[in-house]
Structure formats: structure tokens, C-alpha cells
Amino acid sequence: MGRLARVYAAVVVAAAAVAVAVVVVKRRGKGTKWGKVREIFTEVERKCATPVARLRQVADAMAVEMHAGLASDGGSKLKMLLSYVDNLPTGDEKGLFYALDLGGTNFRVLRVLLGGKEHRVVKQEYEEVSIPPHLMLGGSHELFDFIAAALSRFVETEGDEFRIPEGKQRELGFTFSFPVKQLSIASGTLIKWTKGFCIEETVGQDVVAELTKAMERQGLNMRVTALVNDTIGTLAGGRYEDSDVLVAVILGTGTNAAYVERANAIPKWHGLLPKSGDMVINMEWGNFKSSLLPLTEYDEALDFESLNPGEQIYEKLISGMYLGEIVRRILLRMAQESSLFGEVVPQKLEIPFILRTPHMSAMHHDSSPDLKIVATKLKEFLGIQSTSLKTRRLVISICDIVAQRGARLAAAGIYGILKKLGRDTLTSPKQRTVIAMDGGLYEHYSIFSECLNNTLRNLLGEEVAGTVVIKLANDGSGIGAALLAASHSQYLEG
């Protein structure tokens, strides 16, 4: 064989070897696709694990932070804010009361006619109003004048059955779901606007005074007798229905908790406190943070890219705003590193927050044999055109890991509150403890809520769990504010 022939033959052999190697690599790649998926899945499962022993530690940490937040201003990530609500509804309340619920781009005005223990809520009416976008960025006078004008128009539609006695002033409960430093039951200074509002001139101002001036400009004779947030409104509404309500929790887009604290457990540094009786504490528990919380790289990246890095860590693990986004981030990594959804990563899968928690819930609850709902949601929201049944089952498993972690951590937080109140053991005589629960995540994501309930029961033990009840309390932020206006009315005897 000549030199040229030998060189040619060598090239052919080398090319053939390369071709074989390429085939082998491709085959090996196909064989390792699910291997890589399993590797990522196992890692997520391990890092999201919430064994009972760890949940008890989280609960202990929550209770410690509650004590620290009460003991000193800024002593804890938990704000532990005094609400000055020391007179919760009893059911004896009578008369006509209004509520204004401002917590986003819409607000509601309500009127409630209370008939005491015998007739309870005789009648209620409400109206929802959208806030024009320019008022969310304008001046405080314009915003509060708009709200007061809507309230005035609503008052003008009072029917004869709603008339207040002559010589008495209408009273209003004001639900203001923005960060406020409460000064009394009917006053509080704005710390900052959130939810798209940006009206700098009102920061540091008393929001009740701003609303009162606006009502006066509208010629509306009405007095704000209670300023509350939505969680405290939920507690008040729950207490009106059940006198054993001690705790309120909101699990929706966001999350928070409030509870009834004994007056003698609140340190004197807080200033003027009730001489007897109890007071509701607004925990702002979404900001709870502990090294015991099971964080993954997906949680850390989400937090880093958020508008408030390092803050609201607990909320980012358990609330409806974030659960779907965590699932999306896990699926994205699988798509990038294992071609789970094909050689090209679906563009929609790369868009933050495109997978909402309601979509996640719909997939998680899919019980059809071929998981048709999962396939539809993946196509509709993530642009994934076709998936195998194995892939769809994987998606449900990821939803299960993320939802279970959130639900079990929420249960640990509630258990921590019960420990702080001494309701984690049997009391003598035996006392019933009721938790008023509100929020779409708990109400509509049944796998999440069932997991939370079962986990809390497991933490408490069967005997103690028999004394603890979770009750769904809808519309606490509305009716609860009206009830607090009634229980703190200027016309109460004594």
C-alpha cells in the first residue's frame, strides 16, 4: 500500500471512529436524560425535606422570635406589632357600622347592621371600587379624596333599615393593609407604600387623619374608630363567630398571623397598655427567618432576584405568590440540563412568575388517567407542546414536594404560636383553641390545606389536637373591620 493510500485509509478509519464515538455519545446522552432528571429531583427532595424533628425546631425558633420581638423593639425579624385591639367582638354589638377595606388597586366599602346576640348580622351591603392608576402615583389629597367621595356616595344609598339614631355619628372600621406603626386603636403612621402605590408625602403621616380630613372635605360626618390590617380583621370576624378564636392566619398570595396575647406578657416599654384584659398582636410572620428553614438554590435565587432580598423568607416558602414560581425554576433547570422538554428550552418556561400557584394547584389535583390537565396547563402557560405520561407524573411529583414543604412549614409556624400561648399541651380545665384561617391558598388548594392540618395534628399529638380547631373565616378584612368599629364604638357605655 502506498503512502497516500495509507494516509487515506487512516483518515477513513479515524472518521469511522469519530462517527462511532458520536453515535455512542448520542446514545449515552439519551440514556442519561432521565438519569440527570432523577439526580436533580433527588437533590430537590432532599433539600426540601421537613421531618417532624426539624418542624419542631422551626416551631421552637418561631416561639423564641415571638418572645424576642415583644421584649425589645427590633429584637426580632418578627415585628410583633401592638394593634391596640383590646376589645374583641362578643356578639352583643348592635347598630349600624361601616368598613373601608383598602389593600390594593381596588377597595371595598361595606355597611353592616348588627342586632346583638339574638339577631347577629341582620344585613350587610358592600360595593367595590377600582382606583385609577394615576392616583396610585399622585398626591395624598387626590387619593384620599377619591376614596372619601366613593364612601360618601355609598352612604347616600342607605335604606331606611340602615338609619342611625339622630344625634349619633356614623362609625367606620378602616382596614389598611400597608405597613403602619400603630399609635392607638384609631391612629397609625404609614411606614411605606407597597403593591404599586408610591405617594411619598404620606410616609410618616397618620393615615386616619388623612382619611378624616378627606371625609370632612366631602361633608361626610363619619368617625374612624378602628384602624386594623386584614389579619386582625380576620381574627375579629372569627371571634364574633366563635369565642374560642385566639389566632388568625392568612395563607393567600401573601401570609401573616395575629394572635391574642395576655396583657401581663407585654413588656412595659411598649407604653400605654390595657390595665387588664388582652391585646391582639400583629406578628408580620412572613419575615420570619431561621437557619432551620429548608432552603434550596431555587429559593436563594428567587430571593436574590426579588424586590426585597433577604426579607420575607418565610413568606417566600409558604405563600401563594411564590409556590408556582419555585416549581417553574426547578422545571427550567431540568429542561436546561437534561432536555426534559426537548432539545430547545421552551421560551415561556424562562419567564419569571409565568406559572402561578393556581396553575400548579390545578396540575397537582389532576386525577385523570392520562393527566390531561397537566398536559393542558404545561402547553397553555409554559408553551410545552407535548409531554409523555412519565414527564407529567414528574411535574406532579415536583408540585407535591414544593406544596408539602410549604404546608408543613406553615403548620410548624402555627405550632410555634400555640407553644407561645401554652396551648400545645392539655390544659386543666381542658380549653378549646380555634384558629381563624383566611386566604385562597388554604381555601382552594386542598392538598396544601390537608397536609397542613395533618402535620399540625401530628405535631400536637392526637389528644391535644382534639382541642385545636382550624376554621375557615372568609372576608375577615371587611366584616372584621366593621365589627371592631362596633366593639370600640365611642358610644359604648363605660
Write up this protein.
This protein has 2 domains: 51-81 and 242-474, Hexokinase, domain 1; 84-228, Nucleotidyltransferase, domain 5 (2-Layer Sandwich). The radius of gyration is 28 Å and the shape is globular. It is built from 16 helices and 13 strands. By secondary structure, the protein is α/β, with parallel strands linked by helices. A hairpin with a 3-residue loop joins β9 (245-251) and β10. The termini are far apart. A 6-stranded mixed β-sheet has the order 1-11-10-9-12-13, sandwiched between helices. A 5-stranded mixed β-sheet has the order 4-3-2-5-8.
Secondary-structure topology with pairs:
Elements (H helix, E strand, L loop, with lengths): L2 H45 L4 H20 L9 E2 L11 E9 L3 E10 H4 L1 E10 L9 H16 L14 E7 L3 E5 L2 E4 L16 H11 L4 E7 L1 H12 L3 E7 L3 E8 L15 E5 L14 H9 L7 H6 L4 H16 L18 H8 L7 H11 L6 H33 L11 E6 L1 H5 L1 H15 L1 H4 L2 E5 L3 H12 L7
Parallel strand pairs: 2-5, 5-8, 9-12, 12-13
Antiparallel strand pairs: 1-11, 2-3, 3-4, 6-7, 9-10, 10-11
Helix pairs in contact: 1-9, 2-12, 4-5, 6-16, 9-10, 9-12, 10-11, 10-12, 12-14
